[in-house]
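Action item from last meeting closed. Structure (205 res):
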């Protein structure tokens, strides 16, 4: 089994990189664990308090549960991955059943932030994109998929996304084994990474 962490700012192209890895490996050999599923359960808090959650701060995540689940998969045990609702800002009752696979990918803005989690990884990847590019992608995604108004997104970028990125996300780049500049558009870097993963899998098996 190969455990891979993929981090990078919001809109950096992490999802594209994950999809390229999945495409290049045999069907059913990869399980993706989104870090977003491990936001803290806040059902005990009133909705107006929950709505103020800073989702780009390390305190928003239940790190111990995520590390516990990755350890269980590594030992060959299935997990019940939590699911999270941005509408109610808390966990849902449903879980996702995840079986151990040859490749486990932990994907999220702070996938490389926690040392206990990093210590479980065989390969650490940081996906990088310029601040302008990330802002444009956030605007494209959130206006279309989430119906957020443009002025709200620009305000959020200035007040939350950019300062949190500079304080907590960007510094984790130093822990990466591979840095992929220009996110999912960097075809050569993604090809090299895929070759490395395939070679590592053969070696592990």
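Sequence:
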């Amino acid at each position: 089994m190969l455990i891979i962490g993929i981090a990078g700012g919001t809109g950096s192209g992490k999802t594209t990189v994950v999809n390229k890895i999945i495409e290049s490996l045999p069907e059913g050999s990869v399980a993706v664990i989104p870090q977003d599923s491990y936001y803290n359960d806040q059902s005990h808090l009133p909705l107006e308090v929950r709505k103020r959650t800073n989702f780009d701060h390390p305190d928003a995540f239940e790190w111990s549960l995520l590390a516990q689940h990755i350890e269980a998969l590594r030992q060959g045990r299935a997990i019940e991955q939590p699911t999270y609702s941005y509408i109610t800002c808390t966990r849902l009752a449903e879980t996702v059943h995840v079986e151990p696979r040859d490749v486990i990918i932990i994907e999220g803005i702070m996938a490389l932030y926690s040392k206990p989690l990093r210590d479980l990884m065989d390969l650490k990847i940081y996906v990088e994109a310029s601040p302008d590019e990330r802002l444009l992608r956030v605007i494209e995604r959130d206006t279309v998929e989430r119906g957020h108004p443009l002025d709200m997104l620009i305000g959020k970028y200035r007040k939350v996304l950019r300062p949190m990125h500079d304080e907590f996300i960007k510094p984790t780049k130093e822990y990466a084994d591979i840095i992929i500049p220009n996110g999912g558009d960097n075809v050569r870097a993604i090809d090299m990474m895929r070759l490395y993963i395939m070679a590592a899998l053969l070696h592990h098996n």
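Note appended to the action item: The chain has a mean pLDDT of 89.
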